[in-house]
Amino acid sequence: MMRVVVLISGRGSNLASLFAATDRDGFPARVVAVISNRPAAQGLAIAAARGVPTDVLDHRQFAERGQFDTALAGVIDGFMPDLIVLAGFMRILGEGFVRRYEGRLINIHPSLLPAFPGLHTHRRALLEGVRIHGCTVHFVTADLDHGPVIIQAAVPVLDSDDEDTLAARVLAQEHVVYPQAVRWFAEGRLHLCAGRIVLDVPQDGASALIAPQIARCPPC
Ligand code: GRF
User: Fold this and answer.
1) Shortest-distance Cα residue to atom 2 of ligand 1
2) In-domain check, residue 86
């Protein structure tokens, strides 16, 4: 059983979707700990309610980013994870940290990267007038919101959308693709090799997650 540590900063809906996935029969990974940089992160309660160990490492207690990264790595390593999952973790991690966990550190971002790295992705997508938006699971590199793409899901942008409706449509897909990526990794089908993705799944298995979302777009 693969050991997963999840890092959060807030709500924890992706964490909850991962828990729901790991509850299913035969899921080859389990969440062994949840760590937050914010004491008030709601996701901590989701983990605690399941009896999953939690820890809080408040970044404000550290004078320098590097000190926080070192302390965080110490806490993570104590749980001996095979995979570290960033799920709404709102701290930039330094190069040393990223290198230490290369190939076993993944993130989800609410846009179709490389479009809209950074914050306020849904607002920016609406402002730009894109017709297709979505989310991306990727291996983490030292470049913020960049790194080899594991899986993406696309959703239509409707004329009637505001930031909230678009965010909700994307979030529903986040809850599909993130557990899928974790499953692939835990099954040994997903690797990072010389900075590139090696994914041993039938090609239409991956694309099927994307196409139906577009096909379901209501007529505008
Ligand atoms: C998600 O939209 C995720 O893509 C982004 O932060 C948000 C976290 O939401 N990185 P939640 O805490 O998982 O509900």
Assistant:
1) 110
2) yes
